[in-house]
Amino acid sequence: MSQLKNSKKTTELSMSNEFSVSKPKPQKKAKTVQKTPSMSSAKSPIEDSDYRHKVTDSISQSLILSYSV
Questions:
Q1: Is 69 strand, coil or helix?
Q2: For residue range 31-65, what is the model confidence (pLDDT) as tens digits?
Q3: What is the pLDDT confidence band of residue 9, given thresholds at 50, 70 and 90?
Q4: Cβ atoms 69, 7 nearer than 8 A
Q5: Contact 7/21 with Cβ under 8 angstroms?
Q6: Domain range for residue 34?
């Protein structure tokens, strides 16, 4: 039982780490998009949704890995 509790704690840590590490990424994307104004209106919403999907996918994968172990 102690091993299961430990794995759950590590997932919570990895999830919080992913959020804190990946938060600055959209700001960098926004800066690069501003250089090409013609594409910014078309690109930014797509990039936003892609980014959200990537974050949720990585979290779900880490959760699945922790429970399978």
A1: coil
A2: 545 455 454 444 555 556 666 667 777 777 777 77
A3: low
A4: yes
A5: no
A6: 2-68
CA 38 to chain centre: 27
Confirm if 61 and 17 have CB atoms less than 8 A apart.
Answer: no
CA 12 to chain CA mean position, Å: 14
What confidence score (pLDDT) does residue 55 get?
72
- Token pair, residue 19, equals 């959020």
Indicate the number of domains in the chain: 1
- Rounded CA-CA distance 30/39 in Å is 11
**Chain segment 16-33, per-residue pLDDT in tens:** 555 555 555 555 555 545
Three-class SS state of 18? helix
pTM for the model stands at: 0.20
For the chain, the first-to-last Cα distance in angstroms comes to 13
Structure tokens, 61? 């994968």
